Amino acid sequence: MIETIQGKIISSSLGEFSKKKIVYGYIGIELSDKKHVKIKIDAYTWYESLSLGNEVVIEVEVLANTDILVARKIQLRTSTDASPEEATATT
Q1: Distance in angstroms (rounded) separating the CA atoms of residues 23 and 34
Q2: What value does the CA radius of gyration of the chain take, rounded to a whole number of Å?
Q3: What percent of the chain has pLDDT over 90?
Q4: For residue 4, how far is the Cα from the chain centroid?
Q5: Mean pLDDT score of the chain
Q6: Measuring CA to CA, which residue among 51, 2, 56 is closest to residue 23?
Q7: What pLDDT shows up at residue 18?
Q8: 3-state class of 42 per DSSP?
Q9: How far apart are CA 10 and CA 62, in angstroms?
Q10: Which CATH architecture has domain 3-90?
Q11: How far apart are CA 3 and CA 64, in angstroms?
């Protein structure tokens, strides 16, 4: 089941594989409640950016019978992605 999470990229451990330069590894995300989540990046992850400090919206799913979260889609967060509480805080 795919879930959506939002947060800021605070760490990364990524490498490239093969001549196609496929990116594999993990990124760390800080959620709005200050919790940290480790997310796997693999050949099936589509992303706009993996840069530290970027605010992102990530579609994740659990890898098979494990507790590993795998990113399927990573998009840069826009102001329309903000929760109602965050939108109120910025106006």
Answers
A1: 27
A2: 14
A3: 76
A4: 9
A5: 89
A6: 51
A7: 85
A8: coil
A9: 21
A10: Beta Barrel (2.40)
A11: 15
